[in-house]
Amino acid sequence: MTFKSVDEILEYAIGKEEEAVAFYTDLSKKDTFASVKDTFVSFAKEEQKHVEMLQGISADTAKVETYELKKVPDLKISDYLVETEYKEGMFMQDILRIAMKREEMAVKLYQDLSEKADNAEFCKLFALLAQEESKHKLALETMYDDFLADNEN
């Protein structure tokens, strides 16, 4: 993937974030997932914040400059899972696998975009977004691990 401008990078990232909003919003509406509905609603809202951040970056770069980057633990559970497509009626652990892989790919996307950006502010923005997606990945991996532990009994 080659980008010719920062605007192209941002457009691409916004599209990916909008896909994530739609994905989590759709999952939150499934009746069978009432136990984690709030989590998916929360993730959809977080992804929407990313869309808004990317859309408004030129107007408010101060937020990016003051954002503190921190290391987010990585359980690496999704690293060993095969990507699959969502199908109606999937088991919860399969849906969590899909969500974990999506977040893993988002982290990689933003890390790659950070490397391609030639502007320090945008490098930090993409690092910030990679961190946010890492938080989602960690939450999903923890949820997945807990789900499996609860269902072993």
UniProtKB/TrEMBL annotation:
Domain of life: Bacteria
InterPro entries referenced in this protein's UniProt entry, alphabetically: Ferritin-like (IPR012347), Ferritin-like_SF (IPR009078), Rr_diiron-bd_dom (IPR003251)
A GO molecular function held by the record: oxidoreductase activity
Matching Gene3D superfamilies: 1.20.1260.10
Bilayer-spanning residue ranges: none
Pfam family, one: Rubrerythrin
Domain Rubrerythrin diiron-binding: 8-66, 94-150
Protein name: Rubrerythrin
